[in-house]
Amino acid sequence: MKSKFELKIQSFQHISFEILKNGDSVPKLGNSIYINDSEEPAYEKEMLLSKALQHLIETKTIDNAIRTDDREDLLAYVDSILAVVQAKRSEVMRLEEYVEAPKATTRKKLKS
Question: 112 pLDDT exceeds 70?
Answer without folding.
Answer: no
